[in-house]
Amino acid sequence: MKSLKILLFSLLIVSCASIRVNYDYDKTTVFDNYKTYNYYSDLQTGMNEFDTKRLLAAIDTNLQSKGFSLSETPDFFINIQSSEYQNTQRNTVGLGVGGGGRNVGGGLSLGIPIGQSNINRQIMIDFIDENGKGLFWQAVSESSFNPNASPEKREASLKAVVDKVLLQYPPKQ
C-alpha cells in the first residue's frame, strides 16, 4: 500500500512539475559496450548528504532495472553536479497615471511583484569512460525545488528527475 502511495505521488509530481532535460552524447559511442558503472569516489554533487543519497539510490534503481550493475571495476563512471538558482520575478501589476495636452504629456508607472520567486535546481549527470572515450553521455535537468519540502517529497522529486533523465539512456542510434 505504501509503495502504491509513493507511485501515485511520483506520478502527481511528474505531471505537475515541469522537468526539462537536455541530452548530449558522442554519436560514435557503442552504448552496448557499457554494462557496469560506479560513481567517482570524490563525488561532490553540490547537494546535502541526504539528497545525494536519495539521488544515487534513484540512479541505482533506474540503471539496474535497465540491466546495468554497480561494479568496482566499471565500464564507466558517473559524475554529478548540481546548482540552485532563483528565477527572476516576472509577474507584476502595473499602475499608471498620465495626462496629455497639445504639447504637454506625462506618465508614471509602477510595477508591484506578485507572489514569490521560484527556486530551481539544475542537475548535470555525466557518464565518463576513463579507458579512452572520456565523456560520452550527458544530461542536464532543470526543475523546481522546494528546500523546505519533506523528505518523502524530496525523494519523490529526485526520483522523478532521474526517471526523466534516464528515460533517453541509452540513446537510440
Description:
This protein is of the alpha/beta class and 173 residues long. The chain has one domain (2-168): Double Stranded RNA Binding Domain. It has three helices and eight strands. The strands form two sheets. The protein has a six-stranded mixed beta sheet, covered by helices on one side. Helix 1 packs across helix 3 and helix 2 (49-65) packs across helix 3. The chain starts with a helix and ends in an 8-residue tail after the last helix. The model is unreliable at 11-16 (pLDDT under 50).
CATH architecture: 2-Layer Sandwich
> Rg to the nearest angstrom?
22 Å
Structural class: alpha/beta
- Spatial order of strands in the largest sheet: 1-8-7-4-2-3
CATH class category label: Alpha Beta
| Total domains | 1
Helix residue percentage: 25-40%
Q: How many β-strand stretches?
A: 8
CATH topology: Double Stranded RNA Binding Domain
What is the count of helical runs? 3
Q: Could you describe the largest sheet, including whether it forms a barrel?
A: 6 strands, mixed
Question: Unreliable runs, pLDDT <50, ≥5 residues?
Answer: 11-16
List SSEs in N-to-C order: HEEHEEEEEEH
The shape, in one word, is globular
Return the average pLDDT rounded to an integer: 82
Annotate the secondary structure layout.
Elements: H1 2-16, E1 20-25, E2 36-39, H2 49-65, E3 69-70, E4 76-86, E5 92-100, E6 105-113, E7 119-129, E8 134-144, H3 151-165
Parallel strand pairs: 2-3, 2-4
Antiparallel strand pairs: 1-8, 4-7, 5-6, 7-8
